[in-house]
Amino acid sequence: MDFNILSIILILIVAFLAGMEGILDQFQFHQPIIACSLVGVATGHIKECVMLGGALQLMALGWANVGAAVAPDAALASVASAIIFVKAGKFDAAGQTVAIGTAIALATAGLVLTMVVRTLSVVIVHQADREAEKGNFKGVELWHMVALACQGLRIAIPAGLLLFIPSEIIQGALGSLPAWFTEGMTIGGGFVVAVGYAMVINLMATKEVWPFFFLGFALAPVNQLTLIATGIIGVCAAIIYLNVTNNKGNGGGDGGSASSGDPLGDILNDY
Question: What is the domain partition of the chain in residue ranges?
Answer without folding.
Answer: 5-178, 205-270
